Amino acid sequence: xxxxxxxxxxxxxxxxxxxxxxxxxxxxxxxxxxxxxxxxxxxxxxxxxxxxxxxxxxxxxxxxxxxxxxxxxxxxxxxxxxxxxxxxxxxxxxxxxxxxxxxxxxxxxxxxxxxxxxxxxxxxxxxxxxxxxxxxxxxxxxxxxxxxxxxxxxxxxxxxxxxxxxxxxxxxxxxxxxxxxxxxxxxxxxxxxxxxxxxxxxxxxxxxxxxxxxxxxxxxxxxxxxxxxxxxxxxxxxxxxxxxxxxxxxxxxxxxxxxxxxxxxxxxxxxxxxxxxxxxxxxxxxxxxxxxxxxxxxxxxxxxxxxxxxxxxxxxxxxxxxxxxxxxxxxxxxxxxxxxxxxxxxxxxxxxxxxxxxxxxxxxxxxxxxxxxxxxxxxxxxx
Amino acid sequence: xxxxxxxxxxxxxxxxxxxxxxxxxxxxxxxxxxxxxxxxxxxxxxxxxxxxxxxxxxxxxxxxxxxxxxxxxxxxxxxxxxxxxxxxxxxxxxxxxxxxxxxxxxxxxxxxxxxxxxxxxxxxxxxxxxxxxxxxxxxxxxxxxxxxxxxxxxxxxxxxxxxxxxxxxxxxxxxxxxxxxxxxxxxxxxxxxx
Lengths: 383, 194
Hints:
The complex is a heterodimer of chains A (about 375) and B (about 190). Chain A is globular. Chain A contains 16 helices and 15 strands. Helix content of chain A is about 40%, strand content about 20%. Chain B has two domains: about 5-130, Response regulator (Rossmann fold), CATH 3.40.50; about 130-195, Arc Repressor Mutant, subunit A, CATH 1.10.10.10. Chain B is about 60% helix and about 10% strand. Chain B has helices at about 15-25, 40-50, 60-70, 90-95, 110-125, 130-155, 160-175, 180-194, and strands spanning about 5-10, 30-35, 50-55, 80. A four-stranded parallel beta sheet of chain B has the order 2-1-3-4. The interface between A and B is medium-sized, with 33 and 26 residues.
């Protein structure tokens, strides 16, 4: 008997590990029947999980943290079992703003966060209104980290980003693929920066469950995590990209042209309509560099930034967030499959190039991990 | 005299918006405003200052309401309720669990509840969604009460189930009442006599 597991997701390229786990048989291999529910918005996805209509959900990494800090309405505690994807955000601006930026400061390359920020500030010295998909999102945290307080963040549903720029409601956005490329396709935006240029190892989506579920259903949780891990590994192989794009484009999954999905999966973006493809390494990562390991330092970073934005006690926030970031469960369930790091917390931003670290078996190479401003985040310090 | 409840309906489809508005107006003293979902939703809601926001559970614009939960003054945070067609079971569960009501402040929750219950009932009637569900529920309720009344009679008079039912049917016919009404009277009386 294959137990059915109900999982909620938002139609984004980074829902791929869940869709691929189902479609490529990694769930079946773990004797799991994954039933995927597409949600219309993040609030609804959270409701589905709160109400027990789904057992697990694809979530923005700051969402479980927000819940642990008491932000965004009451509800049962939510935990992060693993990271589903790293990076994957893109920053886009209106064609007008792109032109103004080139006029004041030409030559900011796609990936050069410092110069791009300078151009943006010079082109819009009085501030700027940017769209993000959700108030508690890595998009919001990255923009806040990169641009500081001079900008206003507005919540805009990702499929509406292009229209919102067209209507003049926002002049820029930070969004997950395929919606950045979609806006480019519609001629409403030019992409100016990948999120990875702000933080090269930003945990973007996580697999979230209600607190206690993974302990009460330890066997199921383990099987789910292993199936999703294998799907991430499969997605990391370049020869699988075309098939993945095709599967993700299905109407009940993303429902967009596979060619658009391809751009995020291959890391080759069209930054403006009619332009050339630009290679953007580490645009979106599902597997390499222990991408799925839920480092407690990631939770501490997110909580620290949110505490700063919403005026909360930073120390208490970091403490609460790290408690729901279950690196212990990841170790328990993936011990036979993944190479696990020796530590569960690390300095964030302290790895200018790929680096080997202590691990359970063989050696583990962590990916480049740096912030655009070169700062290092130490989760044990009161910063 | 209470202030009318200011209700904002976020709805793209004009036909659906009209239906909801009619239902709300019939249900009680309300002031109904309609807004299509757009990218300035959060600031528009703040300007309008409704007591209540009605939005579909699956509406992508719902995430913009999340910004309002961060408003510094509780009075700025409207209550959001959902009027979904796509998933009535989930809508009901969400309303019952209270996850949909972000903050209730300044207005009496029972008032919101009464107006909304009535409005939603009418709304669903328009949509011919409710009828069947209610009929089933009423039938279930009736059967339960008839069964209980049968039990009361069987115990009190030492008769069989069939005899108890026949007795109730006769009583109903003689008085021109429904059998469920007679049953309800029996159950109520027996509770009072205990």
